[in-house]
Write a structure and sequence with these properties.
By secondary structure, this protein is of the alpha/beta class. The chain has 14 helices and 11 strands. The strands form 2 sheets. A 7-stranded mixed sheet has the order 1-7-6-5-4-2-3, sandwiched between helices. A 4-stranded antiparallel sheet has the order 8-9-11-10. Bound molecules: pyridoxal-5'-phosphate.
């Protein structure tokens, strides 16, 4: 169905409309087959770069041929991240229903900056944001911003924190910047996620200009160390805690720490990219007790909620501080009246994807009970995998498996652990990756794919044990 009219390439024609159906079919076919797909791509980056390469397209192309080429070229280089045996990073599985809502989001092409310009997008986002506060049981007066992920959620929350703690000492950082501002003390656990440091870097708070607080064997903040650092600090203070340490899954004891930070008039931020979802699961909520006492929270949609990429949430108790940090005003933009909420006032971008549609759809698809069931299932699969692996001679589980994260060593050496990880990846039955835990190379297993069941966990354990035995035999 080659299209020969090249003069109207900027306007869509029937083949472009047909490409929508064609792509939807290819996408559905890919996802229906995901369970059987190898977890490691067959093509390397080099092969992919060669496959996509070519001269600059000089003339308009045929829509259906472009989609066909995209599917054919990309497929060998796709990693089965949406499959049930992908444990490589804390990653969601882009639930098909979320993808369907996301297709509509793209097709509708709403610029979700503004509720007057895009009322449906703003309404879905605002309603979904209120549902999130309820499900995560966080202060209902909080503002919610939908961003690209927890990295940007940490950035936005810490921007609000920076502005508010300086405002309390009479400094307007949004207007006057950081030059000459009273110094802010930032306290952060020694096992915080790298993206929090990135946020501090973006905000002029400095990756190195922080006070690193001692943690226990699971990476949890030590309350006494926090207390000592708070009393040694002078001026505005921001404390950064986490729900779900990226290696151990551990939670900082905020029921103890939050009141200390409040007594010091500090701002307490929580990086809860995945761990905050424990609050949506009755059997696990005790892990995140006291987390509602914080001032701001970062979490992801594209991890445990299984929304498609990209989706994160920034939640700030003091909505005014959130808004002061992010509002973009321009003479040509319509302004919502009074109580209404323009999505772009809570996120760094002006033009932005209407992420609220997929979030609203996923929250309806799973519901309160579905989220709880999934999060609890993942954690029980993780515990079962850890127990079975620990029973194998030479395998050691290094963390208390309180959530969905497992870190392991094989044969007590970095070399044997690395060889086992590489063997698992080469076998392509399941996917696990390496991490560093306090100077030891570990295999890390993150159970967070919506598709992962007990049976898939068992199959993966068998694959990991087989790889370890193969390494020993070699
Ligand atoms: C994944 C993760 C992040 C970063 O989130 P993105 O969605 O990748 O931006 C931050 N903190 C923790 C604990 C994480 O697991």
């Amino acid at each position: 169905m080659a299209i020969t009219h090249t003069d109207d390439a900027g306007t869509a024609n029937t083949a472009d409309w047909a490409a929508l159906d064609h792509a939807a079919q290819a996408a559905a076919d890919y996802r229906r087959g995901i369970v059987t797909k190898a977890t490691t791509p067959t093509a390397t980056y080099g092969a992919m770069a060669a496959a996509f390469a070519g001269p600059v397209p000089e003339t308009p192309g045929d829509p259906l041929a472009i989609i066909d080429d995209l599917v054919r070229l990309a497929t060998p280089g796709l990693r089965a991240m949406t499959g049930p045996r992908f444990f490589g990073w804390v990653i969601g599985a882009s639930h098909p229903l979320g993808v369907a809502a996301d297709w509509l989001t793209s097709a509708w092409g709403q610029n979700a900056a503004n509720l007057i310009a895009a009322p449906a997008a703003a309404a879905a986002e605002n309603v979904a944001g209120a549902w999130l506060l309820d499900l995560l049981d966080l202060p209902r007066e909080s503002s919610v911003g939908m961003v690209t992920g927890a990295t940007m959620a940490n950035f936005v929350a810490l921007a609000a924190a920076r502005g508010e703690v300086l405002r309390r000492v009479g400094w307007d950082v949004e207007a006057d910047g950081l030059f000459g501002a009273p110094p802010i003390t930032v306290l952060i656990g020694d096992e915080a996620h790298a993206t929090v440091y990135a946020a501090l870097k973006f905000l002029g708070l400095g990756e190195r200009r922080v006070v690193r607080i001692a943690v226990d064997a699971q990476g949890r903040l030590l309350p006494d160390a926090v207390a000592a650092a708070l009393s040694a600090s002078v001026g505005p203070v921001i404390v950064i805690a986490q729900a779900g340490q990226i290696n151990t899954g551990a939670f900082d004891p905020l029921d103890i720490i939050a009141p200390m930070v409040a007594a010091r008039d500090g701002w307490l931020h929580v990086d809860g990219a995945f761990g905050l979802w424990a609050r949506a699961a009755p059997a696990l909520a005790h892990l995140a007790a006291g987390y509602d006492l914080a001032d701001s929270w970062a979490t992801d949609g594209h991890k445990w909620l299984q929304t498609p990429y990209d989706c994160g949430f920034v939640i700030v108790r003091d909505a005014d501080a959130h808004r002061r940090a992010m509002t973009i005003a321009a003479s040509y933009l319509p302004v919502a009246d009074g109580a209404e909420r323009d999505p772009s006032h809570y996120a760094p971008e002006l033009s932005r994807r209407a992420r609220g549609f997929a979030v609203w759809a996923m929250l309806r698809r799973l519901g309160r009970t579905g989220i709880a069931e999934m999060v609890e299932r993942h954690c029980s699969v993780a515990r079962q995998m850890a127990d079975r692996l620990a029973a194998e001679p030479g395998v050691a589980v290094l963390n208390d498996v309180v959530l969905n994260q497992i870190i392991l060593t094989f044969g007590g050496s970095d070399a044997a652990t690395r060889a086992t990880i590489m063997q698992v990846q080469a076998d392509t039955i399941c996917f696990v990756g390496p991490s560093d835990w306090r100077g030891t190379l570990v295999m890390r297993i993150s159970v967070s794919s919506g598709e992962t069941t007990e049976a898939e966990g068992d199959r993966s354990v068998a694959a990991i044990i087989a790889a370890w035995r193969a390494v020993q035999a070699a």
